[in-house]
Write a structure and sequence with these properties.
The complex is a heterodimer of chains A (about 260) and B (about 280). Chain A has about 260 residues and is of the alpha/beta class. Chain A has nine helices and ten strands. In chain A, about 35% of the residues lie in helices and about 25% in strands. Adenosine-5'-triphosphate binds next to strand 2 and helix 1 of chain A.
């Protein structure tokens, strides 16, 4: 499904702020995998996701998604393959457009924008049903501006938007980090159900090691631009947070302090 | 003209300074073609197209050459000054006695010239509002609005935001070029300096319109509000001229007036919610 080979990236090369963010990273993900990603600040997690999405090009290496080499494809040209939810709830929607308009924009992900009407009656009905399933009361607020929603509601909406056109891969970058614990748990539960209902392949960055162990069927840990741990489902189910910390030390020779990878809750 | 500027300033959130140039280009192209004896429709259409080309250049400069939009607009405007001079071959071209859209209207219905200007203006504005209302409801129009609102998000949904920006600038400057042509026909001449301050007048109209119609949500009515805003602006200007302001001081007055208008929403927000930080996003 997703095949990353020898990916490297250095920001600001040749300057005082030169920063090697990804160092020869390779990663293969199978269809239907739900991979959780953990690692300290600046480990390069977001950079990998941005590179898959095409926000900036890699220095070297290749990215193949669903049999197609997308390494140098422009961001908007690979958008039909990829669904994204960002950390910042403001990022995923257009605040001054209606909920239904946002959904309609997402429903045309990767398609050519024509002079056909921007929101059709039929799709509005589909959106209403899907919003009902979220159980947040949004189905009655279709023509409210997305900016009026709370952070959690917006993330739920963005998740729905990302799954309307089934993506080959869903990229989640700490999408619950800006929410209060209760809302975060709710959005996470929603994430899991959307992924399993639609049979999606997903990559989820989190700062919460408990969540990383609890959800998904594979866990990878990054440090200093490298993947230092890759744990399969079987092993993952037996692990505790403390085991994970120890594994990290063995793998890197460094001690992972609890504030580098947040152990919230 | 204000409607064109609305596309870039409010919907794309770009302050596009091309308009001072493209307005004059529209006027000059129109004047030239009128003198050559082209039909009225051709004159207006070419004015619209030349404005759109100017917008295309600015769009290319900001997106492909990654020049900040304001600077890109200034560059195009500067370049257009020479181009306009080339088009006309002189600083101004009178077209007083030539047939124009207003005399054409007079030939259809017997009326005074001023009445004709009013009705034709009203009809054109109405047509443009209807077209804009339709366009911004389409997939493409929605994508354009989304580009102004959240560029990263809409790019991740597969929209070529560079292309959209160029398109928006073309539409906006096309409308501005058309307005230049109409002003040329109203005033009876096209000149290379007729665009000076066009952007400021446009912004003034938008802001007055938005202040007066601040409660309006419907997009079509918002556009109508801008037109009303530009009328109010004209009335204010006529009023201060009547009061004895010299035409030489008019530009200074306009600049001050627009500065105050731009500041006005802040004062309003300040009074409304001293304690709430940030303020309203819309
Ligand atoms: N566009 C950019 N230009 C320059 N440096 C960048 C850019 N994007 C990221 N970096 C740098 O790359 C490094 C890795 O960033 P990245 O966002 O991938 O880390 P992360 O693992 O997601 O960390 P966090 O957990 O804090 O989100 C950081 O040092 C960051 O400052
Ligand atoms: Mg990150």
């Amino acid at each position: 499904m997703l095949d990353i080979k020898n990916l490297s990236k250095t920001f600001n090369p040749g300057t005082a702020t030169e920063n090697k963010v990804l160092d020869n990273v390779s990663l293969h993900i199978n269809p239907g995998d739900f991979v959780t990603v953990i690692g300290g600040n600046g480990a390069g997690k977001s950079t990998i996701l941005n590179m898959i999405a095409g926000v900036f090009p890699p220095d070297s290496g290749t990215i193949v998604l669903d049999g197609q080499d997308i390494t140098n494809l422009k961001e908007h040209k690979r958008a039909h393959l990829i669904g994204r939810v960002f950390q910042d709830p403001l990022m995923g929607t257009c605040a001054n457009m209606e909920i239904v308009e946002n959904l309609a924009l997402a429903n045309r992900r990767g398609q050519k924008r024509t002079l056909k009407w921007g929101v059709t009656k039929e799709e509005t009905e589909v959106f209403r049903e899907k919003l009902k399933e979220l159980d947040l009361g949004l189905e009655t607020r279709l023509s409210d501006k997305a900016g009026l929603l709370s952070g959690g509601q917006r993330q739920a909406l963005t998740l729905l938007m990302a799954s309307l056109q089934k993506p080959k891969i869903l990229l989640l970058d700490e999408h619950t980090a800006a929410l209060d614990p209760k809302t975060a748990a709710r959005v996470l539960a929603l994430t899991v159900s959307i992924i399993s209902d639609n049979n999606l392949t997903a990559l989820m960055i989190t700062h919460n090691m408990k969540d990383a162990l609890k959800y998904g069927n594979r866990l990878i840990m990054m440090n200093d631009g490298k993947i230092v741990l890759d744990i399969d489902n079987e092993q993952k189910q037996k692990l505790t947070v403390n085991d994970l910390l120890q594994l990290f030390e063995q793998a890197t020779g460094e001690e992972l302090s609890n504030d580098r990878v947040l152990l919230s809750k | 003209m204000a409607l064109g500027i609305y596309i870039t300033y409010r919907l794309l959130e770009i302050s596009d300074l091309t308009v001072d140039g493209s307005f004059a280009t529209g006027g000059c192209v129109c004047a030239l073609l009128m003198v050559q004896g082209q039909s009225i429709a051709v004159c207006l259409l070419m004015a619209l197209i030349s404005g759109a080309i100017a917008g295309f250049v600015t769009g290319l400069l900001t997106t492909k050459f990654t020049i900040p939009p304001i600077l890109a607009g200034i560059l195009t405007q500067l370049g257009l000054y020479s181009i306009n001079l080339r088009i006309l071959g002189r600083a101004a071209q009178p077209v007083l006695k030539l047939p124009n859209i207003f005399t054409w209207a007079q030939s259809l219905v017997d009326m005074k010239l001023n009445t004709a200007i009013m009705w034709v203006g009203l009809a054109l504005v109405l047509i443009i509002i209807v077209i804009m209302y339709w366009f911004f409801g389409t997939e493409l129009g929605s994508a354009l609005r989304a580009t102004g609102s959240n560029e990263k998000m809409i790019r991740s949904l597969g929209v070529d935001t560079d292309g959209i920006k160029i398109l928006g600038l073309m539409l906006a400057n096309g409308l501005v070029g058309l307005s230049g042509a109409l002003v040329c026909q109203t005033q009876g001449s096209g000149s290379i300096s007729m665009g000076t301050g066009a952007i400021v007048i446009g912004l003034a109209s938008i802001i007055i319109g938005e202040v007066v119609f601040s409660k309006v949500i419907n997009f079509g009515l918002k556009l109508a509000g801008i037109v009303v805003g530009s009328c109010i602006y004209r009335i204010i200007i006529a009023f201060v001229l009547q009061m004895g302001l010299s035409t030489d001081d008019l530009k200074l007055f306009t600049a001050l007036f627009v500065a105050i208008c731009l500041y006005l929403p802040n004062i309003k927000g300040f009074i409304a919610g001293k304690s709430t930080k940030g303020g309203n996003a819309c």
